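retry 2 of 3: previous attempt timed out while embedding thymidine-5'-diphospho-beta-D-xylose. Reduced batch size to 1 and resubmitted. Inputs unchanged:
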Amino acid sequence: MNILITGGAGFIGSNFISYILNKYPKYKVVNYDKLTYAGNLDNLRDVELNSNYRFVKGDIVDSKRVNEVIKTFGITHIVNFAAESHVDRSILGPQVFIDTNVVGTQVLLDAALKHGIKHFHHVSTDEVFGSLPLDSEEKFNEDTRYDPRSPYSASKAASDHLVRAYSETYGLPVSITNTANNFGPYQNPEKFLSRAITNLIDGKKIPMYGDGKYVRDWLYVEDHCSAIDAVLQNKKKTTYLIGGLTNDINNLEVAQKLLEIFGKDESWIKFVKDRPGHDRRYAIDWSKAKKELGWKPKHNFDTWLVRTVKWYKDNEWWWRPLKEESEKLYEKTGQK
Ligand code: NAD
Ligand code: TDX
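retry 2 succeeded.
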């Protein structure tokens, strides 16, 4: 495979590149990334000398450049991670979310068609399905109706629809994964877990939005990588929901686990202003992926939370330069 990985300098994309190059010594990977505030080539230090790896700086909205790269490197497969990914930023400024997540995806789809790409995989989110009630057993599955509620999730929903439209209308071979909240190494400290961990390392409190009774489904990033790998290896091209091993754990409970790891009490939680339109609960039924791909998550939350904390403690060189900028965002939102 000659894979074009867009957004490969971000959190999940960089973990995926390392995963693929380690597992498949014959695959070639081109990382196409604009290097926005979220793109960081330091994530890829372990692979930058690998002869099967190339980095090309570029924007997925730039059709000419995308087409050139696909042609030059003889790309056969595309995995699209490139996106604006943070809900709070989408509330402050939605435009770039439409440009990158919607228009950028359409540019990639057009280029994929033009060059006869064998498989276009689109990385998406469970947030496209909206919000589940707190006191219910209900989970998202592949038949759940789309109901995005933030500019971020609306832009991802639009991109999913375009991907399916290119399959139905033009016969482009596509697949989509809608995935839970990821955690692990190289996550920008703007996101809840990485923000909370780096705050605690700095002797600062965990900022908790609203009443903290917001439920997320947590997936260790390597399990996300193995899921996308399983989809790429599979002949059937369809949509899969990918979730983790947590069972309705809310943000307060996640914070309590962190405080236990750090040996601190609950006075280290600071309640701050809630996020507008905050989705109450996500829960994922990943049984289709298990049945059709033989995939399941392997990393349990408690063990890998401890290891993730250790990674941030051991790799302050990586997150320290990003922390100041990410906290500036919360000065603007008033959530510090
Ligand atoms: P991230 O914000 O860490 O990284 C995004 C990457 O895309 C960065 O390297 C950035 O430079 C690049 N990028 C942004 N705009 C670009 C453009 N116009 N052209 C080229 N590159 C561009 O994001 P992430 O958390 O790694 O998420 C990756 C993908 O997975 C996204 O599509 C996101 O919607 C999806 N997703 C994320 C999560 C999660 O928990 N983080 C969960 C489900 C799905
Ligand atoms: O400081 C915080 N305090 C807090 O209570 C932050 C940053 C968040 N939160 C809450 C909001 C959410 O309920 O924690 C939860 C997780 O927030 P985020 O880390 O911002 O993630 P979320 O909004 O759930 O979206 C994430 O998962 C789905 C990713 O950012 C998306 O890219 C992905 O699609």
